[in-house]
Amino acid sequence: MRALSVTTRRWLLVALFLVVIVVGQATASATAPSTFSATGRTIGAVGFSYLTGLRTFVAATLWNRIEPLFHTYYENIPFERQRFMMPTLRMVTWLDPQFVQAYSIASWVLFKSNKPATGIAIARDGLAHNPDSGLAHAALAQLLFIEGFDKHRAELIALSRRIASSEVVWTDDEDEFEGLAVARDIFIKSGDAVRLNYVETRLAELRASGAGQRPTEP
Q: What CA–CA distance (Å, rounded) separates 215 from 33?
């Protein structure tokens, strides 16, 4: 077994520290008397807010260490050969359940690594934590579409309609472009000409603004 690097060990220690804090906070909350003072409740709220901020910060730091690698060093390496990223990706989603990009990549890595059920489960988890995210909808829709349109027909139609609506939020134009491309394939398969026309128009607008330039998986 390959030894963990010093940096990896350091981040694992940070994660362990956060686990201890979370468990301690949960225990304290569960055992606190019902007559807990207003001052105590305020301190607890401030502490919880601080803990949440710390977790979010650590998640962002971990992500900033690995995200550039997907577009540089590992750009030409298929996702199924990037499973070594999974511990970090899952740590990011645990620390910050609203970090949609980590769910998207983690689900795709496992799906492409011959673990479709696990990949889909992670995508569903990401959508459950981020119900207004266009990327979360698209990540799940893409995996279900690949697994089989007929098998997931009803769910895919619902997901694609949501993706093409104004009810979801996109991280950036690139994510919207890729998400709408997924919806387009579903509309073609389902024969939804009206929504297909809307998506094609929007894709053309995004392409004109410079979106759609992200490299595809090798």
A: 56
